[in-house]
């Protein structure tokens, strides 16, 4: 007699767990042939469309920014070199009107490499790479930036080559050798 009553309670228990409704066995009579619980089907096709979901979510800026103005000396940066405000401002100051072209050639996410004497380097290009290429060298200790670009066979370097650190000359020569051969 107890077993049929327990088996009769299973649909109510499943409904309780599935629909989140609390059914008290003392308040609701349970029958083995008919459940007193009623369900209303809900059409969810329209609720889960991409347009409905994306239009209801706020647009958030998910790009992380570094806390420092300059990367730490002696370590590969956790961010792109131009994500550091000090580096970006220094490059823009050096290049002035040429900055947008240089930035386009450098690319969206240039990978930073470490050089001797804690210098950092990033390069990028547009096709064909031989004639449209950018170079960025950063000295985080002295908070200095050195930039170069090749555009249609012309080499632009800022500041002048005499101001570049000795440790940057070999990577600059290597970069120039792959940039200007015709």
Question: Can you describe what's shown?
Answer:
This protein has 182 residues and is α+β, with helices and mostly antiparallel strands. The protein folds into two domains: 2-43, no CATH class; 81-179, no CATH class. The protein has helices at 2-19, 50-56, 85-95, 99-106, 166-179, and strands at 113-114, 120-125, 132-139, 144-151, 154-158. Strands 1-2-3-4-5 form a five-stranded antiparallel sheet, with helices on both faces. Strand 1 (113-114) and strand 2 (120-125) form a beta hairpin. The longest helix has 18 residues, at 2-19. The protein is elongated.
Considering the chains and any ligands shown, give keywords for the structure.
5 strands; 182 residues; elongated; alpha+beta; 32% helix; 5 helices
Question: How much helicity do the residues have?
Answer: 25-40%
> What pattern of helices and strands is seen along the backbone?
HHHHEEEEEH
What's the Cα radius of gyration? 32 Å
Distance between the termini: 96 Å
Strand count: 5
Model regions low in confidence, pLDDT < 50 over at least 5 residues:
16-26
Counting H and I runs of at least 4 residues, what is the number of helices? 5
For the biggest sheet, the summary is:
5 strands, antiparallel
Question: How big a fraction of the residues is strand?
Answer: 15-25%
Principal-axes shape call:
elongated
Average of pLDDT = 73
């Amino acid at each position: 007699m107890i077993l049929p009553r327990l088996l009769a309670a299973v649909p109510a228990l499943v409904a309780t767990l599935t629909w989140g409704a609390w059914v008290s066995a003392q308040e609701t009579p349970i029958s083995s042939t008919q459940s007193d619980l009623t369900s209303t089907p809900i059409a969810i096709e329209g609720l889960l469309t991409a347009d409905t979901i994306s239009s209801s979510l706020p647009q958030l800026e998910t790009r992380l920014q570094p806390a420092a103005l300059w990367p730490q000396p002696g370590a590969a940066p956790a961010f792109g070199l131009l994500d550091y405000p000090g580096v970006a401002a220094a490059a823009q100051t050096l290049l002035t009107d040429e900055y947008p072209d240089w930035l386009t050639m450098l690319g969206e996410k240039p990978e930073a490499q470490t050089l001797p004497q804690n210098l950092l380097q990033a390069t990028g290009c547009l096709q064909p790479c031989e004639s449209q290429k950018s170079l960025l060298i950063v000295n985080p200790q002295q908070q200095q930036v050195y930039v170069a670009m090749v555009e249609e066979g012309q080499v632009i370097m800022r500041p002048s080559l005499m101001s570049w650190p000795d440790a940057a000359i070999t990577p600059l020569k290597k970069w120039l050798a792959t940039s200007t051969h015709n």
